[in-house]
Design goal:
The protein has 315 residues and is α/β, with parallel strands linked by helices. Helix content is 49%, strand content 16%. The protein folds into 2 domains: 48 residues; 252 residues, 2-enoyl-CoA Hydratase, Chain A, domain 1, CATH 3.90.226.10.
């Protein structure tokens, strides 16, 4: 799948393939031209991806081939055992959680899974969790706390499921309880936004000692399309909405709302999933080691202070 801003790059890559095929099928020497064109493609890629608009980064965060929660688990975690159910209503397939080993260290992993095709997306409810999903997440966090295991959350959701039945079962209360309880968890908590981070659906598992974003992700109270539909009564202004929301990783770091940005391969995480998975693994190992050295009460105090300091208050 090509995004609109990737078309010029694709055109040059197609030309490169033609030149390489010509060299293979004939005696024409195009080695110098191939090298020059490869350099031109590399320069264009660097320029393009360094100057993406906010809406273009939103598009990259939604790329269908982008690694998702279970891709990261499969690539960097050993002996993963998924745990199911909230012990009250059922097992929410949009919210995945379980125990696994990260380089021999037991960790509780929790996150949203969207699915890669239509059947998977329907099964996972497009990564939009119901109240039982957030209650399952909290149950697993408490289990991790009981056994003194660090928690890693991988966030990728368009928001909590907004259906009537979800509201009837206490969607707002479930998310609010997670916020309160996550502040007081005695174990290290690392939260990574790996795709979309929309509203309370993301925030319900995003209160941590370290909150980080992959380079081409977004984090905001509302999606650009929904913002556009509210302000302009149309989705046609989603690009303007994305600019106004200032929702990219760079924006969030400048505002002091996240602690760091994790670099993606040139072109996005989907262009080299193995490299992206390894980069995230190394980041998690370093971050968990850093947090393990801090006493529990001090970690909790720092966590509360960090989130309390967010925002601007004018009296």
């Amino acid at each position: 799948m090509l995004l609109d801003f990737e078309q010029p790059i694709a055109a040059l890559e197609d030309k490169l393939r033609q030149m390489q095929q010509l060299a293979q099928d004939s005696d024409v020497d195009v080695a110098d031209a191939v090298v020059a064109l490869e350099a031109k493609i590399e320069a264009l890629k660097k320029e393009t991806y360094a100057n993406l608009t906010r809406w273009q980064r939103v598009q990259l965060s939604r790329h269908p081939e982008r690694p998702q929660m279970l891709d990261y688990i499969g690539g960097m975690v050993d002996k993963f055992v998924e745990l199911h159910g909230d012990r009250t209503v059922g097992d929410d397939k949009a919210m995945v959680g379980g125990l696994g080993e990260l380089d021999g260290q037991a960790v509780m992993f929790i996150g949203q899974q969207k699915g890669h095709n239509t059947k998977e997306r329907q099964y996972r409810n497009f990564g939009m969790a119901n109240p039982e999903g957030y209650r399952k997440a909290l149950r697993l966090m408490k289990l991790a706390e009981k056994f003194k295991l660090p928690i890693v959350t991988l966030i990728d959701t368009m928001g909590a499921y907004p259906g009537q039945e979800a509201e009837e079962r206490g969607q707002g209360e479930a998310i609010a309880r997670n916020l309160k309880e996550m502040f007081m968890l005695k174990v290290p908590v690392v939260c990574i936004i790996i795709g979309e981070g929309a509203s309370g659906g993301a925030l319900g598992i995003a209160i941590g000692d370290r909150v980080m974003m992959l380079e081409n992700t977004w984090y905001s109270v509302i999606s650009p399309e929904s913002c556009s539909s509210i302000l302009w009564r149309s989705w046609d202004y989603k690009e303007q909405a994305a600019e106004a929301l200032k929702l990219t990783a760079t924006d969030m770091q400048r505002a002091g709302l996240v602690d760091g940005i994790i670099k993606e391969p040139l072109g996005g995480a989907h262009t080299d999933a193995a490299q992206m998975i390894n980069t995230l693994k190394q980041t998690l190992l370093a971050t968990l080691a850093e947090l393990a050295a801090i006493p529990a009460e001090e970690r909790i105090s720092q966590r509360i202070d960090k989130f309390s300091a967010m925002g601007v208050v004018v009296e």
